[in-house]
Amino acid sequence: MKKKLQLLLLGLVFVVGILLDLAPIRVPDGIDKIYHFIGFSLITILAISTYISFFGKKWINLFLMSLLIFGGIFGGISEFLQKYVAIRDCSFQDWITNLCGVTLIVVIAFLNGSRERKKIESNESQFEFKDLPINL
């Protein structure tokens, strides 16, 4: 049930993001960058969490790279679509902000996974079978 709920939440945030992207809302320039960054960061966090709940950490690095690519493409498309919405404008800076939100979360997830792998490897290398009282 948790998996389905996570998938539903990811889809809901994704749809709300698209609707907000296409809504004719005027936001001051400095504030909209914060909204873009938080929105894309949130979607990225939910995407990583949903992936891990379905597949574990198998192929997580490939998924993180895919998120960077997909985040860049989706961020660009969302900015391009604003060109056709009243009182909204397409902005290269907003696209960069979208990409920064995705990139920050992906880098944090990658570094966290690398730290966990190094910790596991160091624990495994400290334990040697010759220390066991049983002859193997």
Which features would summarize this protein structure in a list?
136 residues, 4 helices, mainly alpha, single chain
Describe the protein's architecture and organization:
- The structure is a single chain.
- This protein has helices at 2-22, 29-55, 60-81, 92-126.
- The protein is mainly alpha-helical and 136 residues long.
- The chain has one domain.
- Helix 1 (2-22) packs antiparallel against helix 2 (29-55) and helix 3 packs antiparallel against helix 4.
- The longest helix has 35 residues, at 92-126.
- The protein is elongated, with a radius of gyration of 20 Å.
Mind sketching the topology for me?
Blueprint: H1 2-22, H2 29-55, H3 60-81, H4 92-126
Helix pairs in contact: 1-2, 2-3, 2-4, 3-4
